[in-house]
Amino acid sequence: MNKSDYKKIYNDKLVSAEEAVKCVRSGDWVDYGWITCAPEVLDEALAARYEELEGVNVRGSVLLKRPAIMSVPDTGRHFIWNSWHFSGIDRQLAKEGLAFCIPQRYSELPRYYRENITAVNVAIFQVPPMDDDGYFSFGLNVSHMAALCERAEKIIVEVNRNYPRCCGGDETRIHVSQVDYIVEGGNPPIREMKVGHPGEIDYAIADLLVPEIPNGACLQLGIGAMPNAIGERIAASDLKDLGVHSEMYVDAYLEMAEAGKISGRFKNIDRGLQVYAFAGGTQKLYDYLNENPECLAATVDYVNDARTIAQIDNFISINNAVDIDLFGQISAESSGITQISGAGGQLDFVLGAYLSRGGKSFICLSSTYTDSQGKLHSRIRPTLKDGSAVTDTRANAQYIVTEYGIINLKGASTWERAERIISIAHPSFRDELIREAQQMGIWRR
């Protein structure tokens, strides 16, 4: 087939947003894709049908705006949001009883869709314009999108001329012949995923951690102010020939790349390429990734597989946490029963980095936080709060970093762990933590 044939198929499937969403029925499971590819005009069109629909479950992740479907009258009767990973908007919906977390290990997500999820009635997501070969790129979110589309009974794409077309390998696009409906949206700017500017504690952690990174290392960073602080410090350092292999591509990598710190020349696989499963950040980041052959978008079951990560020497994994207890259990997703974010791929990279020759896994957190009443609390606790999800078990934890130091928990007994963890707690809480450790029988002088 030639370009004109693909264009005919395209025009045959081109409909209004209102016409496209008529295929959604009460009780359906609808997927909104992944983060930045969540629909805009199709979301509005589906919300307009709320009086006709009941019990529609919608799956997605890290909302960057409140969906129109979640603002209709008597929302919970019509739509429920099911999230793979919470943002602040997801948390607010959960407080309203309208959102629920789907626990996951991110590397397994394509398999969930192919083998475990019982229904994907309709998939709705944004894409860049069709290419000359009749394909729509998954753009910033290769992730698990191919597996999702394999299972979907109906696929509706919302074409946005502002959506980046990202370079990648297999399973990074869908052909026009596989799509049921095409809607041309209003071409809004792609929503940015902004994080706060690093603070004093973020820079203190970065200053402790960056000296642990050797030249030629391969990096994985989480999202937030702390990874951005690390990116800034690396950009200003003497480090060179770093590689990138990360579930998420964030602005910190762009800063390092612009400073000439990234070459990937020592990567054992995908040499010279910055590999990622999805991206989120500023418009500058999206412009950088658009058709950039140095950056490789790949499926998350490849990127996050510990067996893939283990093949890369000197792999450095850096992630955040909410709390850690004196046994070395780490929660990066909830505080008690309150869902804050999600497991994501943290455990994937904790496991993979330790399997890498010369690899290191770092979990970073500020030693304290201040609540809404201005009271200071320790993030290092005797035990995790009741109901907290354990993201990384005590056996998996390697390096833990606060602004007070770096410790290594591998091979340490319970009393050694307690002693080391307390050593990086805020000084105001150390005596209390020692008393708690004594009561639990994990302290010796």
As a percent range, the share of helical residues equals: 25-40%
Structural classification: alpha/beta
| Mean model confidence by pLDDT | 96
The number of helical elements comes to: 16
- Indicate the proportion of strand residues: 15-25%
The description of the largest β-sheet is:
8 strands, mixed
Q: How many whole angstroms does the radius of gyration measure? A: 23 Å
Short description:
The chain has 445 residues and is an alpha/beta fold. The chain has helices at residues 3-13, 17-20, 41-47, 75-78, 88-95, 109-116, 145-151, 200-209, 225-235, 251-258, 283-289, 300-303, 306-309, 346-355, 414-423, 427-439; strands at residues 29-31, 56-60, 79-83, 99-101, 122-127, 135-137, 154-159, 173-175, 181-184, 218-221, 243-249, 274-279, 295-297, 315-320, 323-325, 330-331, 334-335, 338-339, 360-364, 368-370, 376-378, 380-381, 399-402, 405-408.
